[in-house]
Specification:
17 helices, mainly alpha, two-stranded antiparallel ribbon, 518 residues
């Protein structure tokens, strides 16, 4: 009897709630709220958030691995020693997947009758291909087909193979190229990269296509297809597959917020790092000594290229001038800190507040892609011409006063002084020493400065540029081949995680991803 009496208040509450549900819904509906956000509201925040994550990890992961900087430490768990804690992998995984939901929502919204727009659909596919390529190149097999489908009830998505992901990304870029060819107008203010210029989004689409095709071009099972498509894009009808034609067409989100921390377009190095933290790493000898030896305009402080006291890369000289420290030094044997990056308060050219660091992909990178393709005989263009255009435009990106005309005396004198001219007599490739691939990828290394993890990806693909190995390196002196999966994934999605790990051959930093395997 007591149990029956105890149930009476509960039943009254349930019936009352049911009876009032209709009235409650009517009262609780906000008449001015946006139930379904239009696609133009999602694009800019998603781009900003992806690039913010890219810049943070470029600074403290890619740059440390690839000997751009050394954050001096006595800790064995230091990225520059090829040894890092597993939880480092969580940040980009979480950031990239979060924004992929937004990119996929843009496509869905722009496919409906209310907001139908082929350009937003095409842009969303390009962005999805870009971010998924970052994920799979960092981790290997990842959730793809079933990813970001929590609204459909898929909470434990299967992991797709990297091969299947790449083939699907190629299809997405083909679809995007077709959708963008219609040049349907979008809201200009929704697009912080190209400000509504759809033709430039299409050029980025096909330039990204070249990047991804080159990445898998060494895999025998897809190489014929990849090389043929590279040739079609590079030499076919440029109206069918337009690509970047100048530095001005590079895919870059310009940070226009200065040092205003509340502005959504303020450089993440201002909003996410203190000035003191930004200056902590020392430049590495591998990165800075070459620029110094080449008398490179990017670190020239003269008024011709800098402002008389500061250079365009915002690099401060150390006690030994433009010099760094050796990466991979053993704990306890570090040299005094040398060159470092100026903070936002110390230089107008500080990268911490530079509008130029929001790099997705540049015209110079495309030129180096074509230089490699020509050197390997896949296309008929001149390797030397592509190589020189890559160098000139990589410098011009940071130093707008530097010429992009490779026949100009300013450029030819630079090449001569630096002794970095193209040499057709060199072998195509070599494990050590000089080669065409080493020359291309050494210059591409500087071109990819601050471009997410691209230096690391390209080094893993090619072995170039050849990096010195310090005595203090861990991991057997081997460059990490991937990021491990976030630790929580092994419990939150245990079954699919286990299948992926078994298929890949392990979940550690030395497990090769598909395109790295022989």
């Amino acid at each position: 009897m007591k149990r029956i009496l105890a149930l009476v208040p509960v039943l009254i509450t349930v019936f009352s709630f049911t009876a009032c549900q209709k009235d409650f819904d009517e009262v609780n509906t906000d008449p001015i709220s946006i139930i379904n956000s239009p696609p133009e509201k999602l694009l800019a925040p998603a781009l900003v958030n992806v690039l913010s994550a890219n810049l943070v990890r470029n600074r403290n992961f890619n740059n440390e691995l690839m000997q751009v900087t050394v954050t001096m430490s006595e800790d064995d768990n230091a990225v520059f020693r090829y040894d890092f804690r597993p939880n480092l992998a969580d940040y980009t995984w979480n950031a990239w997947y979060s924004e992929l939901t937004n990119f996929r929502d843009i496509y869905e919204l722009a496919s409906g009758t209310e907001y139908q727009n082929d350009s937003y659909k095409g842009i969303s596919l390009v962005c999805e291909a870009w971010v998924f390529s970052l994920l799979t190149d960092s981790y290997g097999d990842v959730p793809y087909t079933e990813a970001n489908k929590g609204k459909q009830g898929i909470l434990e998505p299967a992991f797709d193979t990297q091969k299947d992901i790449y083939l699907s990304l190629f299809n997405k870029l083909e679809e995007a190229n077709s959708l963008l060819s219609g040049n349907k107008a979008i809201v200009e203010s929704s697009d912080p990269v190209y400000h509504g210029n759809i033709e430039l989004w299409r050029k980025f689409c096909n330039s990204l296509y070249l990047r991804l095709l080159l990445r898998v071009s060494g895999k025998a099972e897809v190489s014929t297809q990849a090389i043929a498509k590279i040739k079609e894009i590079a030499e076919g009808n440029p109206t069918k597959y337009p690509t970047f034609a100048s530095n001005d067409e590079s895919a870059v989100l310009k940070w226009t917020g200065g040092v205003v921390t509340t502005d959504p377009f303020t450089n993440p190095y201002v909003t996410q790092l203190r000035e003191a933290d930004f200056t902590i790493p020392s430049l590495c000898n591998f990165f800075i000594l070459k620029l110094a030896n080449w008398s490179d305009p990017r670190i020239d402080i003269t008024t011709e290229y800098g402002n008389g006291t500061r250079n365009r890369l915002g690099i401060a000289p150390g006690s030994s001038g433009f010099a760094g420290i050796e990466s991979g030094y053993p704990p306890g044997s570090s040299e005094p800190k040398q060159s470092f990056f100026y903070s936002a308060g110390a230089s107008d050219f500080s990268l911490q507040k530079s509008p130029l660091t929001g790099i997705i992909m540049t015209y110079a990178e495309v030129q180096f892609i074509l230089a490699e393709a020509a050197a390997k005989g896949w296309i008929t263009g001149s390797s030397a011409t592509y190589y020189y255009k890559g160098i000139a435009n990589a410098i011009h990106y940071w130093v707008p006063d530097f010429t992009t005309d490779i026949a100009n005396q300013e450029f030819t004198e630079y090449i001569s002084t630096a002794d970095i001219g193209w040499d057709d007599t060199l072998p195509l490739d070599a494990a050590a020493g000089d080669s065409k691939m080493e020359r291309i990828h050494l210059q591409k290394y500087y071109c990819l400065f601050l471009t997410d993890f691209q230096q690391w990806f390209e080094h893993r693909r090619t072995g170039h540029p050849v990096l010195p190995k310090g005595a203090g390196l861990r991991n057997g002196g081997n460059m990490p081949a991937r990021l491990n999966y976030p630790v929580y994934v092994s419990s939150a999605n245990a079954s699919n995680y286990s299948k992926a790990v078994q298929r890949m051959g392990g979940d550690n930093i030395n497990t090769l991803v598909w395109w790295q395997k022989p």
